[in-house]
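During the reporting period the student researcher (J.K.) took over the structure-prediction task from the postdoctoral fellow and processed the backlog of single-chain submissions. One of the processed entries is reproduced below for the supervisory committee.
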Amino acid sequence: MSKITASMVKELREKTGAGMMDCKQALSENDGDMEKAIDWLRAKGLSKAAKKSSRAAAEGLVGMAGGDTSAALVEVNSETDFVARNESFQQMVGEIARVALDVKGDIEALKAAPYPGSEKSIEDYVKEMVGTIGENMTVRRSACLEVGEGVVATYMHNQAAPGLGKIGVLVALESSGDRDKLMELGRKLAMHVAAANPLAMSEDDIDPEVAERERAVYMEQARESGKPENIVEKMVEGRMKKFFKESVLTSQIFVMDNETPIAKVIKNAEAEVGAPIELKGFVRMQLGEGVEKKEEDFAAEVAKTAGV
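J.K. obtained the following structure tokens:
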């Protein structure tokens, strides 16, 4: 069995809001596996964490670049937020975002592409900047959306500088209607996506593993009620319907009026735009999403610093 350290318990508490002893038991029951421990606490109703996105722990910046019919996002990680405020780092992320647009978000092509004004590839340029700034940095991911006719609207939340921030969103709308009104709608939808964090555009687009994981948690919770299996199944189906409704963009309730489903918001806008509107896609990129910060034992860290 894996050794359960105080730092592991602390990390689990920060992620779930559960009590210390509950966190210790969850880790013990799941052989130190953090993800399984989180699900164990959720199934027991002990986790107070509503969103798993709060587990993001990397620093750096999300960069954005785009025109009317295409836009790209890129995430460049650093070890500290201090570096993210460095002008040289910010300029670098902005340049990388512009190249991401040129290579249509292909991460491998992005890393291999020449850094603007340099003979080095972006990957090599970033390595050189590591030596200059004195902190590890990585180009982690990139994404791009484009439409033939219409707009790709953008929104950057927690903006540190133009086109740079903590959460970047792209929303692609295909339409032959008024471009200004279409862009206004797209920006509002992008702000909604930043706030509501949908998992997919439609129910069919949700990762089957994610859906199955939710179902397993709901099943465990329902069975603990002691009700017959046929009632448990109905309870789980009801919870899953709610999960899909809250997770799918088109069925989410618009955060700006708190009453209209997004699908209807788009349909209602067609009269003002003057043409049918099709939601072609969206991307939400949050800094550090899915990256775990390495937690060291505090006593060991002090000892290491002291040269013990």
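The committee noted the following: Confidence is low (pLDDT under 50) at residues 49-57, 294-299, 301-308.
J.K. will present the remaining backlog at the next meeting.
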